[in-house]
Amino acid sequence: MFESVSTVAVDLDDVLFDFLGYFFQWHNIQYGTTLKPADMVYSTIWEAWDGTKDEAAERVPTFFHEIDMLSLLPIDGAIQAVTQMKERFSLSIVSARDPSTLDITQAWIHKYFGNLFDNVMLGIGNPMADVHVNTKADACRQLGADLLIDDQTRHAKDVALSGVPVILFGNTPANQADALPSNITRVEDWNHVLNVLGLKHH
Fold this sequence. Notes:
Elements: E1 7-10, H1 19-31, H2 53-66, H3 78-86, E2 90-94, H4 102-113, E3 119-121, H5 136-143, E4 147-150, H6 153-161, E5 166-169, E6 184-187, H7 190-196
Parallel strand pairs: 1-2, 1-4, 2-3, 4-5, 5-6
Helix pairs in contact: 3-7, 5-6
């Protein structure tokens, strides 16, 4: 399935950056909640604290502006895997993260991944946006991406149904599905990504 891949779109949050882990830590301190990533069985994040979309649209960008993001390490294995992938593929980031975080997001990417990514697209398929935003299938078409790596089943299905294969990252309570299109491959971690792409670990 991946032999002809040349351009890969990579999600950011919960694929490269442990968003749920870091956000829930911050949210628990700010709002007295006891959220844990393992409890995240919902399709939208505001359901985790029985809140509203408007609350999430305010809290998530605030989190990114208040934390010391540059001190937060990428998900285990991400740097090594992306470095190896760059030897074979053109790489771009396609994320639903709020575009208001672009500066700090780009600074974090540059600190840990240097110039491994050719493009950074934010606000793609953001469930908190009030206006229509491009889907990740749209973004893949725009970039000419022939593979997406993402942790959310809704994005994975959307892109897979457009004809682009997807690596569904992680095996979490939130990304389970009764049935997935045949061109979606679930992986456990970044080592597993390298394995399915036929790349050897350096």
